[in-house]
Design brief:
The protein folds into 2 domains: 3-110 and 183-469, TIM Barrel; 111-179, Alpha-Beta Complex (Oligo-1,6-glucosidase, domain 2), CATH 3.90.400. Helix content is 26%, strand content 11%. The protein contains 15 helices and 15 strands. It has an 8-stranded parallel β-sheet. A 3-stranded antiparallel β-sheet has the order 6-8-7, with no helix packed on it. A two-stranded antiparallel ribbon has the order 3-4. β9 (203-206), α7 and β10 (266-269) form a beta-alpha-beta unit. The longest helix has 15 residues, at 183-197.
């Protein structure tokens, strides 16, 4: 498909709706119970009807799948459970013909421990890839070099007998961290990016971007004095020497430099820290992420005052001229409809498409999908297996996404009661109607009759931003059923 037909715009993401898909839970085409690329291709009509402008896929690379594919054995290979590179090329072609762009997850912080890079690195201290991962000698007592903790519990250091050293892993011990201080590692990840960009990928979502660099002196993280027993053990330390290091920003700048070799490609990413830290992920004298993902709406309490405060704090935290981002779901987050209820979730979808900025939905959000119960013997998420009792399990929001529900949703007429009020100068009527369809599941709640929504207004953001109607109670309309 030609760039002109796709909309040859350098900053297309400013008026796009982006839809995250965990492919393994989306649509199965061969009866093995796992979603795949041919299954996604079979649902393109639904995505077109929905009105999304870009699809973001969680990792599809070769993997042992200990952590939803974020443990990668080969960056340049599609895992066989999803299909083949030929299937991938077909998906890119058909998405582009449909006017939809494709974003892949990029996981530059760590690999799987069966990746050839790590197999070679762990074999000895003097091989060509010996310094591709973070290695350290044991402490004087023979134990780990310091007190750094894995996100999945316990020490973040694993012993390697062949090298008589420890290696560092931010996540599972089967996910060793790459050494981003090594220029060969940076060059290898850049080559991975070019491999997919040359195949037509429109950008990347950068995973774990804030932890790419760790303290080179290996200093202990201090205990968090405010963390009580209700905090998961890995979160009872303040990660000043492992997270959000200044050098990590330089790594993001290098990744952005590769993105900028290609016209109109997007770099969005997972960031670390509170709202007041999000601004520096956009960049200073050098650009970093186009869109640092912002979960202020998802994490906010559900009342007008809290929402107003969180929205204003976020808009005040990003640099002048930076483009805002709003996310209400994701593979790492609990379903918003389960958190606040069906009717409020519909209003939140309207708010998402009303605020200036780029909205991100997670598959099923448009249907008001809620968390599902996972029996303890069926849990797959390592968070729940290794850090039990803190409600960290991500399986309930990443489980099977019913294609029959998608088919029924696609057969319904688009909503006429929902309209985006993003900058009119940037959006045609057709664009507005497409975005309206992307929140089509709120149609039952939004009526042309204003009496359906409680009166009341809440000022959103700074004085320069518009004031919008905001309901103080749920809508009376019943949610649409998404069951077959």
């Amino acid at each position: 498909m030609s760039a002109t037909a796709r909309g040859d715009e350098q900053e297309w993401w400013r008026h796009a709706v982006i839809y995250e898909i965990a492919l393994i839970s989306f649509q199965d085409s061969n009866g093995d119970g796992k979603g795949d690329l041919p299954g996604l291709i079979s649902r393109l009509d639904y995505l077109k009807w929905l009105g999304v402008d870009a699809v973001w896929l969680t990792p599809i690379y070769k993997s042992p799948f200990r952590d939803l594919g974020y443990d990668i054995s080969d960056y340049c290979c599609v895992d066989s459970i999803f299909g083949s590179l030929q299937d991938f090329d077909e998906l890119v072609s058909k998405l582009h013909k449909s006017g939809i762009r494709l974003i892949l997850d990029l996981v530059p912080n760590h690999t799987a421990n069966d990746h050839p890079w790590f197999v070679e690195s762990s074999a000895s201290r003097d091989n060509p890839k010996a310094d591709w991962y973070i290695w350290a000698d044991a402490a004087e007592n023979g134990g780990p070099p310091n007190n750094w903790r894995s996100r999945f519990g316990g020490t973040a250091w694993e012993w390697c007998e062949a090298r008589r050293q420890y290696y560092y892993h931010s996540f599972l011990f089967e996910q060793p961290d790459l050494n981003w201080r090594n220029p060969q590692v940076r060059a290898a990840i850049a080559d991975v990016m070019r491999f997919w960009l040359d195949r037509g990928v429109d950008g990347f979502r950068l995973d774990a971007s804030a932890v790419l660099i760790k303290d080179d002196l290996l200093r202990d993280n201090p205990p968090d004095p405010q963390a009580g027993e209700d905090k998961p053990p890995p979160q009872r330390y303040t990660p000043v020497f492992t997270d959000d290091r200044p050098e990590a920003m330089h790594c993001i700048e290098l990744i952005r430099r590769v993105i900028d070799e290609y016209h109109g490609r997007l770099l969005c990413g997972e960031v670390q820290g509170k709202t007041d830290r999000i601004g520096h992920f956009y960049g200073n004298d050098k650009p970093r992420l186009h869109l640092p993902l912002n979960f202020a709406l998802l994490d906010s309490a559900w009342d007008a005052i809290s929402l107003q405060a969180n929205i204003d704090a976020y808009l005040s935290a990003i640099p002048a001229g930076a483009w805002p981002v709003w996310v209400i779901g994701g593979h790492d987050k609990q379903r918003i409809a389960s958190k606040i209820g069906q009717d409020p979730a519909r209003v939140l979808a309207m708010l998402l498409l009303t605020l200036k900025g780029t909205p991100f939905f997670y598959m099923g959000d448009e249907l008001g999908q809620e968390r599902v119960h996972i029996p303890s013997d069926r849990v797959q998420d390592p968070f729940e297996k290794l850090v039990k009792g803190y409600d960290l399990c991500r399986d309930p929001q990443g489980r099977r996404y019913a294609g029959t529900a998608a088919t029924r949703a696609a057969s319904r007429p688009a909503s006429r009661g929902c309209r985006s009020t993003k900058d009119a100068s940037e959006m045609s009527n057709t664009r507005r109607e497409r975005i309206a369809r992307s929140c089509g599941f709120i149609a039952g709640c939004l009526r042309s009759d204003a009496s359906m929504i409680a009166s009341g207004k809440a000022s959103i953001g700074r004085s320069a931003r518009a004031t919008m109607s905001f309901p103080t109670r749920g809508c009376s309309a019943k949610p649409r059923s998404s069951s077959p």
